[in-house]
Specification:
Layout (H helix, E strand, L loop, with lengths): L1 H29 L10 E7 L49 E7 H12 L13 E11 L9 H15 L18 E10 L2 E9 L6 H21 L2 E9 L3 E4 L1 H6 L8 H15 L5 E9 L6 H15 L6 E6 L7 H10 L5 E6 L5 H9 L4
Parallel strand pairs: 5-6, 5-8, 8-9, 9-10
Antiparallel strand pairs: 1-2, 3-4, 6-7
Length: about 375
């Protein structure tokens, strides 16, 4: 019975997984999952799944199965039409919605399958260690759930042979208490591949609420994928207009400033943060910059290019620039980056015209496995 239940649950999870995958692009473009995120789970509304279950009628109710009834009599009363009226057959399908909890790891797996994302090749191990319990030993005491069958049988067989009670014609071995052996664990430490994402965003007046929402949705899915790839993932947030500063996540997505834009201020702060906290030999480093493409001057753009060449690219796995379309932005900065780094695989650029373009942008950023 337990095996049958496990098989049914496995089939159900596969159905759910297929439904999520079929609707993934809608979930991404509409941002439906972000507000449903818990600590480790995301609650997802799945349409078109109806779970079979028994429904019991009221006692003393006449009809088929109780009291008098004729072939063709309806079960549970008169038929109703689709919109609540009586006497006509309904023509519209009912809406069946089921909310299921999916772990962020499962969600990342589905994202990877749908977008065909390769596993990331990390740069190395960090000095941070993870503690794990591995069942590598045997001991004489322990819970029955950890009893080692083969070792227990071997000890019982040795005892029976040594005591002369073993009968080859009737080789029945009954383990005694002293024969029992149990698996035991040893605590081990191992290096963990660590990663940091440094999100940078232009918060000048031309970056409105819609543009910030696009960045928020895309960063959710980028985080989900990178957390699947790395056991230790940190995120840092930098906002800038004419000056840059580091902020908390909520501030990052809800701040709106005005005034000019000097992108180099964010790149300088990013490089300084890496210098202070994230040695390149120990960390996998991912700067992501989102902007509408406006910059104060060509001189500042050239300063950005210089900072990238000298301070950022030698240390990072990938530098990602996402340009969110805005009615007020010139869109020039992505052209300048492509002019200077068009052949550099460490620099990935993506144009995000609207929410429907988020999926292809994620593919642009994560599709190379850097």
């Amino acid at each position: 019975m337990s095996l049958k239940i496990d098989q049914d649950h496995y089939r159900f999870r596969n159905i759910v997984r297929g439904k999520i995958r079929d609707n993934l692009r809608r979930y991404i473009s509409q941002g439906e999952l972000i507000g449903r995120k818990g600590k480790d789970l995301v609650s997802i509304p799945i349409p078109q799944i109806d779970i079979p279950r028994f429904t019991f009628g009221d006692k003393q109710q006449g009809g088929v199965g109780q009291g008098d009834g004729e072939p063709g009599d309806p079960l549970g009363g008169d038929p109703q039409d689709g919109d609540g009226g009586a006497g006509k057959a309904g023509s519209e399908a009912g809406e069946h919605m089921l909310e299921v909890d999916v772990t962020l790891d499962e969600l990342a797996d589905i994202l990877g399958e749908e977008l065909e994302l390769p596993d990331i090749q990390d740069k190395g191990k960090s000095s941070v260690v993870a503690v794990k319990d591995r069942y590598t030993g045997i001991r004489r005491v322990g819970p029955e759930s950890l009893r080692h069958f083969k070792r227990t049988y071997r000890e019982a067989l040795k005892r029976a042979i040594a005591s002369g009670t073993y009968d080859p014609g009737d080789p029945v071995i009954v383990p005694q208490h002293e024969d029992k052996r149990f698996r035991s664990w040893n605590t081990e430490t191992e290096p963990v591949a660590n990663a940091v994402i440094l999100y940078m965003m232009d918060v000048s007046g031309s970056m409105g609420d819609e543009q910030k929402e696009i960045v928020r949705i895309e960063s959710f899915w980028i985080d989900a994928w990178l957390k699947k790839q790395y056991k230790g993932l940190e995120s840092r947030y930098i906002i800038h207009d004419a000056v840059a500063r580091e902020v908390e996540r909520d501030t990052f997505f809800h701040t709106r400033e005005s005034g000019g834009t000097m992108i180099s201020s964010a790149y300088k702060l990013c490089a300084q943060t890496i210098d202070d906290h994230y040695p390149a030999e120990e960390w996998n480093i991912y700067p992501f910059h989102f902007s509408d493409g406006d910059n104060w001057s060509m001189d500042d753009t050239l300063s950005c290019i210089e900072i990238m060449k000298k301070d950022l690219l030698p240390r990072v796995n990938m530098f990602a620039y996402g340009q969110v379309e805005s009615p007020y932005g010139s869109g020039q900065f992505i052209k300048d980056l492509r002019e200077h780094f068009g052949t550099d695989e460490r620099v990935v650029t993506s144009e995000i015209r609207d929410k429907d373009a988020i999926v292809s942008s994620i593919k642009d950023f994560l599709g190379k496995g850097n």
